[in-house]
UniProtKB/TrEMBL annotation:
Domain SHSP: 25-135
UniProt-listed PANTHER family: HEAT-SHOCK PROTEIN 20 FAMILY MEMBER (PTHR11527)
Alphabetical list of InterPro entries matching this protein: A-crystallin/Hsp20_dom (IPR002068), HSP20-like_chaperone (IPR008978), Small_HSP (IPR031107)
Gene: hsp18
Organism of provenance: Nocardioides nanhaiensis
SUPFAM superfamilies given in the database record: HSP20-like chaperones
Lineage: Bacteria, Bacillati, Actinomycetota, Actinomycetes, Propionibacteriales
Family: Belongs to the small heat shock protein (HSP20) family.
Record-given protein name: Molecular chaperone Hsp18
Source organism superkingdom: Bacteria
Length: 145
């Protein structure tokens, strides 16, 4: 069973954060923690969104800005909060992605409270061979760009 205790300083912090519209300072988790890494010809992003419904997640790409929005709703019905430390409401995170990524082929999946985005490297950004022609057409050599 959860025992309800009152900490006047913590309650004051929560009230101040609520009134100012901030997430608080010490005991609040980051709204959307993220890990990012490269695997070969693709970039992978994972964002933690525990308790968020898949239907409330919105992913937009405009030019080279990726925006992720999600909403964690408060419970409805006849209940009394005993502890309320997880932030609720709308969360948003924007990432500026480089021109070397193919933003038209982003793949997204959501499982176990983790949003996974896979962004492939654009074909134009991959290494390729360039032919060099000499004075005669039969003197061609390939070099790597």
């Amino acid at each position: 069973m959860l025992i309800r205790t009152t900490d006047p300083f913590r309650e004051l912090d929560r009230l101040t954060a609520h009134l100012l519209g901030t997430t608080g300072t010490t005991n609040r988790p980051a709204a959307m923690p993220m890990d990012a890494w490269r695997e070969g010809d693709r970039f992978v992003l994972e964002l933690d969104l525990p308790g968020v419904s898949r239907d409330s997640i919105d992913i937009d790409v405009e030019r080279n800005v990726l925006t992720v929005r999600a909403e964690r709703l408060a419970r409805n019905g006849d209940w009394e909060a005993l502890a309320s430390e997880r932030p609720r409401g709308m969360f948003s995170r924007q990432l500026v992605l480089g021109d070397n990524l193919d933003l038209d082929r982003i793949e997204a999946s959501y499982a176990d409270g983790v949003l996974r985005l896979v962004v492939p490297v654009a074909e134009k950004a991959k290494p390729r061979k360039v032919e060099i022609s000499g004075a005669r057409d039969d003197e061609k050599t390939a070099i790597e760009a």
